[in-house]
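Think of the structure tokens as a kind of shorthand, similar to the way a musician reads notation: each symbol stands for something richer, in this case the local conformation of the backbone. In the example below we present two proteins back to back. Begin with the first one, reading the sequence and then the tokens, and try to describe in your own words what changes along the chain.
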Amino acid sequence: MKLPLRFAAALFLSLAAVPALAGEWVELFDGKTLDGWTQRNGTATYRVEDKTIVGKTNEGSPNSFLCSDKEYGDFELEFEVKVHDKLNSGVQIRSQTKDTPTGRVNGPQVEIEASGEGGAEAGYIYGEATGRGWLTPEDELKPHKHFKDGQWNKFRVVARGPRIQTWINGKPIADLTDEPIYETHPKGFIGLQVHSIGKGEGPYEVAWRNIRIKELD
């Protein structure tokens, strides 16, 4: 039976409005716009270029964050990232702002940085503005070279309850169980960080693409 055009259109719109169910992958970036994202803190710039989100440093700015409008609790997150060798970056998970919507971004951060000659801490978990520094225990914070400098790197993050696991290019990096951070940050936004830089440095850029998330039951 063929539906009249007006009914078919109404059905399509109603189905499109149904939120994704747990277990379904959802694209966080449409490849064209920054719809669904809001910048918090800092004056770094974010733009869309060649189906990527490109963040660019601004001298004198504090850390900047492009944050998802939606909050997430238990999830699996995947993204690809490429960063300038001299720029530190990261992706916030389950993060919040202090006191007001424009307050300081804080929460667990998945570290992004080039390996360099001696390796680095990419993939480990830092407590951005939590007063705790690294959440990954010091004895597990071992520099490695799984991050490929100057290339696209695929990150995978699984957050379930107090446990956070990360992988870079298929290699397991962090496996953190932290009850205190889960008590204060059981859910929150995803945030793409452009780190502050020193005077006379930069500008540097970091780019993300293929950002998708799957909420877990």
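Once you have a description of the first chain, move to the second and do the same.
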Amino acid sequence: MNIRKAERKHSKIKMALQGPSGSGKTYSSLLLGFGLVGDYAKICIIDSEAGSADLYAHLGEFAIIQISKPYTPESYISALELAEKEGFKCIIIDSLSHCWQYLIDYHAGMIGNSFTNWAKITPRHNQLISTILTSPAHIIGTLRVKQDYVLQDKGTGKLVPEKVGLKAIQRDGVDYEFTLVFDLDIHHFASCSKDRTGIFMDKEPFII
């Protein structure tokens, strides 16, 4: 154990892109990956989106690791370890939402106490997040979002559903684990909802 002075270092970015279907998450991730490493051949996509990444093969010679059902945390971890072993400098996980949806469905099929069952599942998800955060590569993870609603009392005594915006299909709080979080809208504009680099916060929405 020792004490040292804090210093700004070159670090590997851990970034999330969240947006609805059609917002351009895969395409934007590839552009960002190229911006980070300067060569599409150094980028690998872990693809659970049924080959959607192949649509952008014209951009450059990036690699793809295709994963299929069931989208277990362990399959994502194995794909990450394979990409790291092959020396890729940027790994895109497209999409992390499939893994979370798998865990929700898996939990729903378990017998017994719901709370106790989550205690068995959460460590599996935690291991995936830990693998992402400790990776020696830049990581860009995409997250699907859906419209979220809350029940509001409008003074009539009846609860009425009301839109409150978009919610990522992912465990609550996962976005806090990333260095950067970009929110993409259906018109492909990105806004930054979390930024530990200090580069993008408070910037006007922009197209990546």
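Compare your description with these statements about the second chain. The first strand starts at residue 14 and ends at 19.
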